[in-house]
Specification:
With about 180 residues, this protein is mainly alpha-helical. It contains 6 helices and 2 strands.
Length: about 180
């Protein structure tokens, strides 16, 4: 039995991703690789980071779901930590990527990022289509800041993380246009 609430959240994520790809497809390779400073990411690097973070999250959830019957439930402390995570991602604060995530490659192509992300998104859709509703409040994802989250919170993190980096992509694009005048 599929879970319509989870799939609605999935479709929201997917629509945002498709819109991003449509917008990025209109940019030149020079714009996609432009870096405001040598130490900052390009649009392609920021996009790769979001894809890779989501890919690792989906892989983790896929493993955790196999033992979901023994997973603990999330509670008030988790809700508070998740709320604080959401506030931080929606703020203008900048964060360092977790150490375990490799630096996004400098010469990645948009096509390769899209291809990898398609695979990850298909895996996420499969997880959500088959996710048992009675386990929606169980821990299935571990976030470095908020700790262990349930499936709804994991999807919320994906959405907030995407939006956080979308603002970064928009800033890079605006800087490129300003500096090319």
């Amino acid at each position: 039995m599929s879970n319509s609430v989870l799939l609605t959240k999935y479709h929201t994520l997917e629509n945002k991703r498709q819109q991003l790809f449509a917008d990025l497809a209109k940019k030149t390779i020079e714009e996609l690789k432009y870096k405001q400073t040598p130490n900052m990411w390009s649009i392609l690097q920021a996009t790769h980071h979001v894809m890779n973070a989501e890919k690792l999250a989906v892989e983790y959830m896929g493993k955790k779901i196999k033992g979901i019957n023994t997973s603990p439930k999330t509670g008030l402390k988790t809700n508070i930590r998740f709320f604080l995570l959401q506030i931080s991602l929606k703020s203008s604060l900048k964060f360092k990527a977790p150490k375990f995530l490799p630096d996004p490659p400098l010469n990645e192509t948009l096509e390769n990022i899209m291809s990898q992300w398609n695979i990850s998104r298909n895996a996420l859709r499969e997880i959500l289509e088959n996710f048992p509703q009675e386990h929606e409040n169980k821990e299935v994802f571990k976030n470095l800041v908020a700790g262990k989250l349930n499936i709804h919170q994991a999807l919320g993190w994906m959405d907030d993380h995407f939006s956080h980096h979308l603002l970064q992509i928009e800033r890079i694009s605006a800087s490129y246009k300003y500096n090319k005048k």
